[in-house]
Design goal:
about 575 residues; alpha/beta; FAD/NAD(P)-binding domain; D-Amino Acid Oxidase, Chain A, domain 2; 8-stranded mixed beta sheet; 19 helices; 20 strands
Length: about 575
């Protein structure tokens, strides 16, 4: 584990990393793997080893973050043997007072996805990563506080307090992975407010909570193999909120409440007792499960207005921000490890090239713009103003299909193929990245308008978003191993498919909406894609996404007629 005080540490490093959590430890490991001679110090304020389970939020991963840890860093054995394989994202939409989960519309896969993701016990994972850092020659100081940071022309100076002793270290580069402490972002006044005003409370229970115990509804219980749903990142959805239940390998369960403060008061969840009352009102089955286990409560934490951005994450003054020390959007879709993987990959490339004597000025400017104005931008649009949609089974199901189509179709595809640091390739596909952003902006606005107009109640059926054929194919395509020419073509093909999906979602919503500024643009996409193979595929594959209303049955479109 971390360095003993008796070990004489050097005072000069190539890189000092502030923070020894998931972001900082993986950054150190990635840099050592890329350039083994790089000298690195990681300084963390927590004493190690850290507790398992009751440690940090951020247990669930998306496919990108999972691939980063298991394949890029090479820790597949650990995540497969010591963590839990995730059965995808699963949502249950509000119905009949939420008294029986078997009577709620369910969105989620019937089996494991082609490309795996995981549920991480963060304490277990970070203890493992700390050991790997020491094994790979990274100097790791735990239980120390950063007292000061001085940025210099030739080197940066960091003052640490550990065991009552003050230590002064210097490094050519600084990487801030200090989490919400955000040492550099606060010191340099980089914080940028965003319009997303959501807040959260979460806690861990030292027991397994299986939501399949909540219903004896025979049709619901027979849809899937018994006990399988528990391994999803489960979400209980309602207007302006969602509740997560995440199983951990240490046999604990992570439970969290996330709210839009325009629809729910933060005061209603800011203490554990308040959370129990809030759950009793909105998610009574979850409240009962937690109340029965309240004696097994391990921790309780809250954060208000958790989303923010930064005016810069990669600086020509030789510092970088990674993880939530830089930006944060929302916990839905579990993007935290994704952002760590992307930021660390760009950081590692910049620092390694610079230490080898390369002028990285142009590359650094491109990375900073790409990370903030593409990666963060398309992610933030998923959540800003979108929490009212969460109570609408039809629109939220369509939104999940859309959001994953973009996620798997462009940014994840580029990451899985190792292209983010290929400057020539990335510049060449910049027009397609802008096309992706345009689609994302228009469709998130459509979802908001559609949700406001649609007030129908839907049958308690299940939609498997990976079972939508083009979606399953898109996810499998992440591992296709394409060369540059085929990869560029695949990005274009996926965006062609996204345009067809955009048109079909618009046509479904349009009868409920008045005229909108985006309608002319979407109508042009309609004319552009009509009769094409991607459009026919989307029409054919979307049937299960159109739910049947209890009050007014909605007839499914005839796929053959539409395709013709």
């Amino acid at each position: 584990m971390p360095e003993e005080e008796s070990v004489a540490l050097p005072r000069q490093y190539d890189v000092i990393i502030l923070g020894g959590g998931l972001a900082g430890l993986t950054a150190a490991l990635q840099m050592r793997q890329r350039r083994p001679e790089t000298t690195i110090l990681v300084a963390d304020r927590r004493a190690h080893p850290v507790p398992e389970a009751a440690f940090k939020v951020g247990e669930s991963t998306g496919e990108l973050g999972a691939y980063y840890v298991s394949d890029i860093l090479g820790f597949r054995e650990h995540v497969q043997l010591r963590q839990l394989t995730k059965l995808g994202l699963r949502m249950f939409f509000s119905s009949e007072g939420n008294l029986d989960i078997g009577r709620r519309m369910e969105l989620g896969p019937f089996e494991h996805l082609p490309v795996p993701a995981y549920q991480f016990d963060r304490g277990r994972l970070e203890n493992f990563l700390g050991g790997e850092c020491l094994r790979q020659g990274v100097h790791f100081l735990d239980d120390c506080r950063v007292c000061g940071v001085e940025l210099g022309d030739e080197s940066h100076r960091v003052t640490l307090l550990r065991g009552g002793k003050e230590l002064t270290m210097e490094a050519r580069w600084l990487v801030d992975g200090s989490g919400r402490t955000s040492i550099l972002r606060r010191k340099l006044g980089l914080e940028v407010e965003v319009g997303h005003k959501a807040s959260a409370a979460w806690f861990r229970i030292q027991d397994e909570i299986d939501l399949e115990d909540w219903s004896s509804e025979p049709v619901w219980r027979q849809r899937m193999l018994p006990g399988l749903r528990r391994f999803s990142t489960n979400h209980l959805m309602g207007p302006g909120y969602w509740v997560w239940l995440i199983p951990l390998a240490s046999k604990a369960t992570s439970v969290g409440i996330v709210i839009d403060e325009e629809m729910h008061s933060f005061q209603g969840i800011h203490r554990f007792e308040d959370c129990l009352e809030w759950l009793a009102k909105h998610e009574p089955q979850c409240a009962t499960a937690v109340e029965e286990r309240r004696h097994l409560l391990m921790d309780f934490l809250t954060v208000k207005h958790f989303a923010y951005s930064s005016s810069k994450v990669f600086s020509p003054d030789r510092w970088c921000l990674t993880g939530v020390a830089g930006v944060f959007t929302d916990a839905l879709y579990s993007p935290g490890t994704d952002f760590i993987g992307v930021a660390n990959t760009l950081t590692t490339d910049l620092i390694s090239r610079a230490l080898d004597g390369e002028d990285v000025g142009e590359r650094l400017a491109f990375y900073d713009d790409f990370f903030l104005n593409f990666w963060f931008d398309i992610a933030l649009r998923l959540f800003e103003g979108q929490y009212p949609i969460m109570g609408n089974a039809q629109v939220m199901s369509a939104k999940i299909i859309w959001d994953f189509c973009i996620y798997w179709g462009v940014p994840s595809l580029l990451f899985f193929h190792g292209k983010l640091c290929d400057l020539e390739f990335m510049k060449a596909i910049t027009p397609e990245l802008r096309r992706c952003q345009r689609l994302q902006e228009a469709m998130q606005e459509l979802m908001r308008a559609w949700s406001l107009a649609d007030s129908q109640v839907y049958e308690p059926k299940q939609v498997d978003y990976v079972g939508v054929v083009f979606m399953g194919n898109m996810q499998r395509g992440l591992l296709a191993g394409l060369d540059d020419a085929r990869l560029a073509a695949k990005v274009t093909t996926n965006l062609d498919l996204a345009e067809c999906l955009a048109v079909e979602l618009w046509k479904k919503a349009a009868p409920l909406l008045g005229s909108r500024p985006e309608d002319e643009w979407l109508a042009e996409l309609d004319r552009k894609t009509v009769g094409t193979a991607p459009r026919a595929a989307v029409i054919r594959d979307l049937e299960d996404v159109w739910l049947r209303s209890v009050d007014q049955p909605v007839e499914l479109r005839d796929a053959v007629q539409m395709a013709s």
